[in-house]
Write a structure and sequence with these properties.
Layout: E1 7-12, H1 20-33, E2 38-43, H2 45-48, H3 52-55, H4 58-71, E3 80-83, H5 89-98, H6 103-107, H7 110-118, H8 125-128, H9 130-140, E4 145-148, H10 153-169, E5 179-182, H11 211-219, H12 240-248, H13 251-262, H14 268-294, H15 297-326
Bound molecules: tryptophan.
Tryptophan (TRP) binds next to strand 1, helix 9 and strand 4.
Length: 330
Amino acid sequence: MTAKKGRVFSGARPTGKQHLGNYLGAIKNYVQLQDEYDCVYSIVDIHALTTLETTVNLKENTLEMALDWLAAGMDPQKSVIFIQSHVPEVTELHIYLSMVTPEGKLTDLPTFKDKVRENPNNINYGLVGYPVLMAADILLYKADTVPVGIDQAPHIEFARECVRSFNYRYNTKVLIEPQMKVTQYPKIIGIDGVNKMSKSLNNEIEISATPELTQKRVVSMVTDPNRQRRTDPGNPDVCNVYSLHKIFSTSDQVNMVNTECRRAGIGCVDCKKMLAENINQNLAGLREKRSQLAAHPNDVWDILHDGDKRARVIAEATMQEVRKAIGFAE
Ligand code: TRP
């Protein structure tokens, strides 16, 4: 542990079975960071309560996401993997941080405005405070490095401001300013060929899907809209099937698709079948491991509970310092 660069914290709301976008954008990165950093990864189920669609099926969605995480190589021997609500200290830190947060700063955030647009009928106090809870996550575990997508940049900046405000008000150094580590990965577009892959848009390909279902989803992908007939030449540059080939296929295959699509040498159906096969091959090991884990859900819960305990040790130590810094009577 001592040779590691620092502490990473990241979290994701329990959205159930993970898709290629989650896998390529976040999970693979979490796995890689484990050897370089002391990593703490959280299933942020309290954050899930801020929107109605993620409030339901919490337990099942937590298990499904944990299965994907573990099957992908997030390793409880290397990292702390735990459930946010099982370490309730985060809610305590959240309320202290809220007292050093000007309300307008939260309602001005672009991420808040997006949520208001998406869910105009459920603008709750907790949703406004979403970034405060996220800051509490990071600061509670004294993480210096937070791997997230670029969309989360305002939240990380907010967390840094929280640290400065808290430390200044209480004349302390207990909280640490985290740095964002942007996940460099092209946005993964869903099978509709237009929108970012997402469960709520029903355009996802789940990493745990069967090979048959994967093929079915890939075959239904929207391709270059100008290529109507098999004999029409296509433009791979505007085709999401090609984008995924670049991730999952060999460079020879990518070159072949690039050339042959442009001169109608390969049809979309064959091109898609090839892609589906490569995705299936790439995920075969993960899927095998996942079904072994899924056969023993109690072992998965045990892994998470062990993570809860390890997380709680860190959290409790921070909170003792925080309460002391605030000046609560002992
Ligand atoms: N807001 C993050 C997202 O939607 C999830 C999250 C919650 C998080 N707490 C965090 C990410 C702490 C990094 C660190 O993706």
